[in-house]
Design goal:
Layout lengths: L14 E9 L10 H12 L8 E6 L15 E4 L2 E6 L5 E3 L4 H4 L3 H6 L7 H5 L13 H7 L5 E4 L3
Antiparallel strand pairs: 1-2, 1-4, 3-4, 5-6
Length: about 160
Amino acid sequence: LRLEDPYMESPCTTGWSRWSRTAGACPSPTALDGTTLATISAALGQSGDPNPYIRDIHLTGENCFDSGFNTVGAQVEVDGECFQHVHPQHYSVRDFSRWVLVHDGNDAAAAANRPNPIAKWAAQGLTYLHFPDHHPVSRFASRKRYIPEVGRYGD
């Protein structure tokens, strides 16, 4: 999922933010002011989140500034790992049992003799699906009630 409305929110906003983890240096570390970088780095380094793929951190808004800096999607290096601010549902595990039946595109797919647009991913043996670029992310926000979250990948 992409970081766009209604999910285009700075990690400096009071609350939780999700960060993707990868080993090694960040390809494009984000230029942040020293205080903001220190605040985000400390939260990531001290989180204790054992998930090998993502890290969720909570910031209070103190000592984290997004004025003059684009913190949305920021890349930060901490202890030899690269962390990138991602969509809050990135690597969430969801139950698509109901959505496979009520997806908006089911009728059009059936009429065109195409596979179910949701079930096709599982039929290919995949355990994930790509959110299409032609769908606005707001569509996920309005329909996620049909796709209950059951956990985080890697937990």
